[in-house]
Amino acid sequence: MASATGIPEQPVVDPREGEESRAEESRGDEPREDEPLLGRPGAATQQDGRSLFPNLIIGTAGIAQAGLILLVASVWASVFLNPLIFFSAHPLLNSAGLLFLTESILILQPTHTPTQKRQGTIAHFIANNLALDLLIAGLVIIEYNKWANAIPHFESPHAVLGLTTYILLLIQSAVGFTQYFTPRLYGSVDRAKSIYKWHRISGYIILTTMLATVIAATQTDYNKNILDIKIWAIIIAAILVLIGVLPRIKKQKLGLQPKPSGVEGQ
């Protein structure tokens, strides 16, 4: 654009823009608080001002969702293609519980600001409670069925894995609730926050044992003789869920890299 004198005007450049750009470049290789285990932070980080719901599909979460759909569809289709009995509720409730448990992880993972973490924790708590209610209902069904029919308890790998998972999940839920909502039980808020990483680690372990429990369920007599859920379908589904969930783990949240100075929140 020319001035009144006919001499082209030079564009006005804010010197701070160059400084900010160089500063951003210099931070490019530094660890970020919101950086996932695999990939750069943008692949699985909630954007400022966005709702929680996109957290369920961003990054590799879509792969996890595909695995969940395959797993739940395999179980529910096999159940409803056979005559329904009292025991039919057990696989239906437990697969639904696994679904909501995984969603509770996916919705919280990408949060990184204090506000996002508070909102994500509430959503995580609600979904986890729903999952726990469904799983406990599934446990009541199987225990009553065994008691009513005088069936031995905890003889199959599925039963042993299931009981182990239930115990871990109950402990996990109790610790997670008290850590966040009643931290004084641990002596102080800081002390409660110091064990958050163990809550997260145990959550991923429990998810894995739950998937292993479903795989083991395909080897029970009831499945072999009645439902005929294919083990290969459940194994593929479990792998997809883990591929979708594990790469989004934030290294800083597990204590695998130091927390950057000035970062707040849990």
From TrEMBL:
Biased composition (Basic and acidic residues): 14-37
Main localization of the protein described in the UniProt heading: membrane
Keyword Heme carried by entry: yes
SMART domains listed in its UniProt record: B561
Spans traversing the lipid bilayer: 56-79, 85-108, 120-142, 162-181, 201-219, 231-249
Entry membrane topology: Multi-pass membrane protein
Protein name (database record): Cytochrome b561 domain-containing protein
Organism: Amorphotheca resinae ATCC 22711
